[in-house]
């Protein structure tokens, strides 16, 4: 507290004061003013830190920054993993821009690092492209009403073949529709359909979708 207030300190057992020439930058995702009122944060510390507060909007409100930040984190991962080229597949950009990013920049960084690791394991170390299915977001869309109604009530359904054949046809249509709505994102499709991603890929392969 003395360092923040006066810019000097005194070591334990020392009778001399030492000048500390530093600039303190503190960051938080909490509402400290409210925390002070709730008595969960020290008021004296808050007033010493809150000299020039800067409100930084959450990442979901700064879509134009997502591509720039993604490029920065991709370059870090490229160097860390020893890759020649690491890029995002074009279909990833709408996915990143539409996601709400509850974990803000740290979540973006960790998602890209994880996706880069998966991409390297599947594609090698030369030209590596991150695909939408490599992401694993914490918030997944639920099955939409449109999907729940597929095929729609009132549509004429021709019963041809066995139950297995008709079940396969329904599953194929459901997966195709969900993939279309989620822009080809297999990970989000698996979550929306409440399936494990590996099981979805196996099912899609059996149904001739892959």
UniProtKB/TrEMBL annotation:
GO terms for biological process: regulation of DNA-templated transcription. It comes from Photobacterium damsela subsp. piscicida (Pasteurella piscicida). It comes from the Bacteria. Residues 1-117 form the Sigma-54 factor interaction domain. The keyword Translocase does not apply. Gene3D superfamilies: 1.10.8.60, Homeodomain-like, P-loop containing nucleotide triphosphate hydrolases. This is Anaerobic nitric oxide reductase transcription regulator NorR. One of its GO terms (molecular function) is ATP binding. The keyword Transcription regulation applies. Keywords: ATP-binding, Nucleotide-binding, Transcription, Transcription regulation. Signal peptide: none annotated. InterPro entries: AAA_lid_NorR, Homeodomain-like_sf, P-loop_NTPase, Sigma_54_int, Sigma_54_int_dom_CS.
């Amino acid at each position: 507290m003395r360092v923040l207030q006066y810019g000097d300190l005194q070591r334990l057992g020392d009778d001399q004061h030492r000048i500390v020439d530093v600039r303190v930058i503190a960051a938080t995702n909490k509402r400290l003013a409210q925390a002070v009122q709730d008595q969960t944060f020290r008021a004296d510390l808050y007033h010493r830190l809150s000299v020039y507060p800067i409100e930084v909007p959450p990442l979901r409100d700064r879509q134009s920054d997502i591509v720039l930040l993604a490029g920065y984190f991709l370059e870090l991962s490229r160097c860390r993993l020893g890759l020649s080229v690491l890029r995002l597949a074009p279909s990833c950009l709408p996915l990143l821009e539409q996601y709400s990013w509850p974990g803000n920049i740290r979540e973006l960084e960790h998602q890209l690092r994880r996706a880069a690791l998966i991409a390297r394991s599947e594609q090698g170390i030369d030209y590596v492209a991150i695909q939408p299915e490599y992401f694993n977001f914490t918030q997944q869309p639920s099955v939409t009403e449109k999907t729940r109604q597929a095929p729609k009530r009132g549509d004429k359904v021709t019963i041809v073949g066995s139950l297995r054949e008709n079940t396969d046809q329904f599953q194929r249509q459901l997966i195709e529709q969900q993939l279309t709505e989620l822009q080809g994102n297999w990970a989000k499709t698996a979550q929306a359909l409440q399936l494990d991603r590996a099981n979805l890929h196996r099912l899609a392969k059996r149904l001739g979708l892959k």
